[in-house]
Design goal:
Layout: H1 6-26, H2 31-43, E1 46-50, H3 57-68, E2 72-76, H4 83-87, E3 88-93, E4 98-103, E5 110-114, H5 121-133, E6 135-138, E7 141-144, E8 150-155, H6 168-171, E9 174-179, H7 185-196, H8 210-220, H9 227-241, H10 249-252, E10 255-257, H11 261-277, H12 285-296, E11 301-302, H13 304-308, H14 313-323
Helix pairs in contact: 1-3, 2-11, 9-11, 11-12, 12-14
């Protein structure tokens, strides 16, 4: 494998630090969410954000798009949204007597699918081809989407009325599902003060260009991961499928389906990206453990017994991380 460039690494590390600084001008706290969004950006992976209203999910994504100077489209998912509202449609041109393609808002670099679970399955499935194949078909013509292409979706876990749970096949296409938590008391005081100040400026500077993003992606691919850590990733994923083989009898009664192969792929990629942003050219076991929750929490399907006993996916992941050893 080609060695990672030390000079480029230092340059990229400084630019990532500047991205955090620019984001902090608008968004108070939420460094964890920003970190996961950057991991998705640098590994070509989509991210699903879940949290109650008012936690700056939408603001964070739109601000990040400004800092990256990428084409950004926010799509508010509603029950009456149609697939054509997302990808586009064919329109008849009376002057020329021909049908023309009218492209939808999905033709951008960063797509914010706001409250994605408010639209029915046919609209959600319209995202599938775009997310997986990076292309859209309108009529008989297929259009390649511009690179980079990233879908960042938000959903509200509180309101269940008028919502449509995302199909497992679609959820699995998200690299990570990130739970966004409340700010601390000090952060909330700062938020309150900023919003009450009518002179607050939302302007941020552009830090990363498309060339920078592709350069970082290329460098992330060169981050080294040992064979023992590759084996560790596989053991973690297999523990979700065959928990009894790993002496996880208590968790076995709650797991209906284990994680898919996408979990292995994305654990590897996200651990590399995290290591790179931390300033290393190699992956540590802690990197894998750090991203395990976000990569696996939406890929492990629990049964009704888990719901009855109030067992969460995160509880199962914690038990797996505590039980599965790192093989030499």
């Amino acid at each position: 494998m080609e060695a990672l460039s030390v000079e480029k690494h230092e340059e990229h590390k400084e630019k990532v630090r500047q991205v955090y600084a620019e984001m902090a001008k608008v968004v108070v706290g939420q460094e964890y969410m920003v970190n996961r969004l950057l991991i998705g950006l640098f590994t070509n992976g989509h991210v699903l954000l879940e949290g109650v209203p008012g936690l700056a999910k939408t603001l964070t994504v739109s601000t990040l798009a400004q800092v990256l100077h990428l084409d950004f489209q926010r799509i508010q998912f509603t029950p009456d949204l149609l697939p054509s509202d997302l990808v586009g449609t064919m329109i008849y041109n009376q002057k020329d007597g021909k049908f023309e393609v009218k492209k939808g808002p999905i033709f951008a670099n960063i797509i914010l699918a706001d409250e994605i679970n408010r639209s029915p399955a046919k609209v959600q499935s319209a995202l599938l081809e775009a997310m997986q194949e990076k292309q859209v078909t309108i009529g008989e013509t297929t259009f390649k989407l511009d690179r980079p292409f990233l879908v960042l979706a938000t959903q509200n876990p509180v309101d269940q009325e008028g919502t449509y749970p995302l199909p497992e096949a679609q959820v699995d296409r998200f690299m990570m599902k990130v739970f966004v938590d409340y700010p601390t008391k000090e952060q909330e005081i700062e938020i309150m003060r900023r919003i009450s100040n009518m002179q607050f400026n939302y302007q941020v500077s552009t830090i990363l260009s498309k060339e920078d993003i592709f350069g970082i992606r290329d460098q992330v691919n060169k981050v080294k991961i040992s064979e023992s850590l590759e084996r560790y990733i596989i053991e973690l994923v297999y523990a979700t499928r065959n928990p009894l083989d790993y002496k996880l009898a208590e968790q076995a009664q709650y797991i209906q389906f284990g994680a898919s192969p996408r979990a292995s792929i994305n654990l590897n990629l996200s651990a590399k990206a995290l290591a790179y942003m931390e300033g290393r050219d190699y992956v540590l076991p802690e990197d894998i453990k750090e991203v395990a929750r976000d990569v696996m929490n939406h890929r492990i399907i629990l049964n009704y017994e888990a719901e009855a006993d109030n067992v969460k996916t995160n509880d199962v992941i914690k038990a797996i991380l505590n039980k599965v050893p790192i093989t030499k």
